[in-house]
Amino acid sequence: MRWVYSPAHVLHDPVHEVQFGVPVPAYEVPARAEAIREAMEADDSFERIAPSEHGVEPILRVHEPRMVHFLEEAWAQWAEHHRRRAAGPVDHPDAPVPALIPDSFLHPAIREGMGSSPEPRQNPVARAGMWGFETMTPIGPGTYRAARAAVDVALTAADLVLDGQPAAYGLCRPPGHHAPRAAFGGYCFFNNAAIAAEHLAGATGERVAILDLDYHHGNGTQQIFYRRANVLYVSLHGDPDRAYPYFAGWAEETGAGPGIGATLNIPLPEGCSDRAYLTELRRGLEAIRSYRCPFLVVSLGVDTHREDPICDFALTTPVYEEIGQRVRGLGMRTVVLQEGGYHLPSIGPSVRGFLRGVDGTATPAPPA
Ligand code: Q9C
Ligand code: ZN
Question: Which residue among the candidates 9, 54, 177, 178 is catalytic per the annotation?
């Protein structure tokens, strides 16, 4: 299988994220993608490809242009804002500029019954609070370039499949599935999977299915396609009654308007085992089969692993191969894109195992 990687991901290098109001070491770090790269490069059945530049247009087909514009200029505006404040009595004028993390959000209740507020333009903290939805996704000096490169990785993987490869993998970093049309958050800036799905649909006129296997519900992807009949969204994830992103992912959410029936959520309990996961996966794959379309985008998060530090499922490394084989059984043209996975020692083998399953090169089971 061919797979796509850009070294530009290292430009997004957050030090801290803010959880429950407290700065903790960032989980979504460059070492994640490097661990996956190393596992892939140790396996001769994979061939690494560099991404090609696709420009900003495919992003604008999915995302609010004002948000894209904000992300493009956020760091420069924040650095300037910080320098001006630091010139006061508190800090040294050339104190290092910390990452931009919003502290105040445009909660819908603030403006209830009053119409919308104008977009803030002066203060980068206000802008971040308009376009961001939480405090775990810092913006640093290279964040925009890394996020743009992740989209190029996704689109290049989609192009490989459009050009006839049965499957391809894009090692996207930062991930994407939490970003809805008009916000960033959940370690995500641009929704790589949604942009790839739109690219496949636009290039062929065919319908596209998305299978989201990340531990977290892909609220962004669901939102982008919620009213669309030509993109099916299927997700297995930690039940939002206990798990981030808390405000989407219930089984009762099945789409709206023309998209009714084109969203399927499968929320799962704490401690979900290999066996329970495979049983529930069957329902997801059945829905994709019934949808009858040629293309599949997989949002592959391996934060379902039992060792993952921020999640609570109990999957073991070997099951990812089995999951990949079952996805292969759909017989669809498949673009696999990286989402989460935070346990550095297991993410490489888990991702590689899944891809070997999809590719039909999985290691044979030991004799019984
Ligand atoms: N205290 C992805 O896996 N932290 N994003 C949740 C809440 C944010 C995960 C913990 C998790 C974002 C792509
Ligand atoms: Zn996740």
Answer: 178
Q: Which residues contact 332 (CB under 8 A, 6 or more apart)?
A: 209, 288, 293, 294, 295, 296
With a CB cutoff of 8 Å and minimum separation 6, the contacts of 228 are 258, 259, 262
Q: Catalytic site residue 178?
A: yes
- CA 186 to centroid of ligand 1, rounded, Å: 5
- pLDDT tens-digit profile of 142-187? 999 999 999 999 999 999 999 999 999 999 999 999 999 999 999 9
Closest residue by Cα to atom 10, ligand 1, is 244
The pLDDT of residue 84 is 87
Pocket test for ligand 1, best of 28, 101, 136 (most atoms within 8 A of CB): 136
User: Which distant-in-sequence residues (6+ apart) come within 8 Å of 368 by Cβ?
Assistant: none
Is-cis flag, bond preceding 366, omega within 30?
Answer: no
> Looking at ligand 1, which atom is closest to the CA of residue 244?
6
pTM, 2 dp: 0.97
Of 34-43, 81-90, 180-189, 190-199, the least confident: 81-90
Tokens of 141: 């000096």
Ligand 1, atom 11: nearest CA belongs to which residue? 186
What is the token pair recorded at 207? 């319908």
Distances in Å between the alpha carbon of 205 and those of 24, 56, 327? 45, 21, 23
pLDDT tens digits, one per residue of 230-266: 999 999 999 999 999 999 999 999 999 999 999 999 9
Q: How far is the CA of 58 from the centre of ligand 1 (A)?
A: 26
Output the CA 216–ligand 1 centroid distance in Å: 7
Q: Mean pLDDT in the chain?
A: 96
Dihedral sign for Cα atoms in the order 16, 62, 311, 153: negative
* Ligand 1 residue neighbourhood (C-beta within 6 Å): 19, 136, 175, 178, 186-188, 214, 216, 244, 301, 303, 310, 339-340
- pLDDT 10s digits, 291-316: 999 999 999 999 999 999 999 999 99
Has residue 90 got a pLDDT over 60? no
Report angle CA 214, 166, 280 to the nearest 5 degrees.
35
